[in-house]
Design a protein that fits this description.
The protein is mostly beta strands. It contains three helices and 45 strands. The protein has a 45-stranded parallel beta sheet that branches.
């Protein structure tokens, strides 16, 4: 074990320990141990994995803290893996000396506005376990090429940038689990300009990742607890599971709990994205899908928006099943909107507006605009104002087996269902309605 104090580090919080720790990295035995203390550094600690033997960092069960007073990452871990996750693509030298760099039970704090936490590139099977990162810019920054990442049991808290930032990255297989990602100004997890496969986000508390709650003195920028952006050339994110998380915030300008932005391009592979069993709420828009293909949103509790619980734009093959959409406070709203989308299904969901006046933006519980081949089946809509379902310029929309009701003493809805604009092949059947069906002559709606 390479005790950094044996290489000259003091851990007294005053001495610059940069050179001593770098000495321990290069000339130690590969297990970099920090005894209890505060270790002040002023430059990036560079860890070239080649030749260091399998490498790990230990913070003595969380009692050691590294304080980064310079710009850039506190730790830069650099490997040479250029293959895939297939064992046959991994060079023997990587298996022998670079596999599974592990960072365990250590705290890292920033004391410079451009300080980052950990930056990884070219690694194979890296592990973060029991790590706390606070007051830096980006907590964990994955870039270039990495494979098989585990981030578990971590606290990535109150940072000026993104908690876990995947930028210009080629990565297959990453699990983010049982961690606390909160009060990060530009998002809890953010992916941009990257090719990602097999991303699992499970069992985390991801909350309050926006400027008003984290750094109110700084300019507000659009953000999300989870932000996936594949609109750049060559970017794609497939095979994603977001499951069993608490994902909540306070409303911020152009903010979301989950935002997925893809390029609507029929030549790309399907999205293969599942969002299941989460608690999602209290943002301007709770879930925002743009240009997506192949997303399943099932079994979630989605509550209190400023604009929409769910906004789907220019998307295809979106399945929304067994969620409930409602307000949580009087300040919040509730409602779902699909626009310019096709081949979608909404089934077994409940929509409830407990207010007397409806949404402040005047939207109905379910809005459909310029959609085609969309089925709404077995849903309940309660207290929609001005309508339970409001469809405009739609084709081949089927509303069947739904209950559309109003429980107010003084009814406020104009109608249960409205179809207007131009359309064809639309049908409403076998529904229990408290209210009328309003349809323009050109909407192409038949009712039975």
């Amino acid at each position: 074990m390479s005790d950094v104090k044996n290489f000259g580090a003091t851990g007294d919080g005053e001495t610059d320990d940069t050179a001593a720790i770098q000495h321990a990295i290069i000339d130690g035995d590969g297990l970099l141990n920090f005894p209890k203390g505060r270790y002040r550094i002023t430059k990036t600690l560079k860890i070239p994995l080649a030749g260091l033997s399998p490498f790990a960092i230990s913070g003595s069960m969380g009692t050691a803290t590294v304080v980064m007073e310079g710009h850039g990452p506190a730790f830069q871990i650099m490997g040479n893996h250029g293959g895939t996750g297939d064992p046959g693509s991994v060079k023997p030298s990587v298996w022998m000396s670079e596999r599974m760099p592990a960072i365990r039970e250590i705290a890292l704090e920033g004391a410079h506005p451009e300080a980052d936490g950990f930056q990884l590139e070219g690694t194979m099977q890296a592990v973060f376990d029991g790590v706390m990162i606070r007051n830096v810019r980006h907590g964990i920054h994955l870039t270039k090429r990495n494979r098989n990442i585990l981030i578990v049991n971590c606290h990535i808290y109150h940072n000026r940038g993104v908690g876990i930032y995947m930028d210009s990255l080629n990565l297959h297989q990453i699990n983010i689990a049982t961690s606390h990602l909160s009060y990060n100004r530009l998002g809890g997890i953010r992916i941009e300009r990257s090719e990602i496969r097999n991303l699992q986000i499970t069992g985390n508390d991801i909350e309050y990742n926006n400027t008003p709650r984290s750094f109110p003195e700084l300019p507000i920028e659009p953000t999300a607890e989870i932000w996936i952006d594949t609109t750049a050339d060559g970017a794609s994110v497939n095979e994603i599971t977001i499951a069993s998380n608490t994902i909540q915030a306070t409303s911020s300008k152009d903010g979301c709990n989950i935002r997925i932005m893809e390029k609507a391009d029929s030549s790309r592979p399907p999205g293969l994205i599942a969002i299941t069993g989460n608690i999602i709420g209290s943002q301007e828009t709770n879930v925002h899908l743009t240009g997506c293909y192949g997303v399943s949103l099932t079994g979630n509790s989605i509550y209190s928006c400023s604009h929409h619980n769910l906004l789907v734009e220019n998307s295809q093959m979106i399945t929304v099943g067994s969620n409930h959409f409602r307000r949580h406070t009087e300040k919040g709203g509730t409602g779902v909107r699909f626009t310019h989308s096709e081949d979608c299904a909404i089934a077994g969901c409940s929509f409830l507006d407990e207010s007397l006046e409806g949404q402040k933006n005047g939207a109905s519980l379910l809005e459909l605009q310029n959609c085609q081949r969309l089925a709404v089946t077995g849903c309940t809509f309660t207290n929609g104002v001005p309508y339970g379902i409001d469809a405009r310029d739609c084709r081949d929309v089927l509303v069947t087996g739904c209950t559309i009701a109003e429980t107010r003493k003084e009814p406020a809805a104009k109608a249960a269902i409205r179809f207007h604009g131009t359309g064809e092949g639309n049908r409403a059947s076998s529904c229990a309605l408290r209210g009328e069906v309003s349809a323009s002559a050109t909407a192409g709606l038949s009712v039975n």
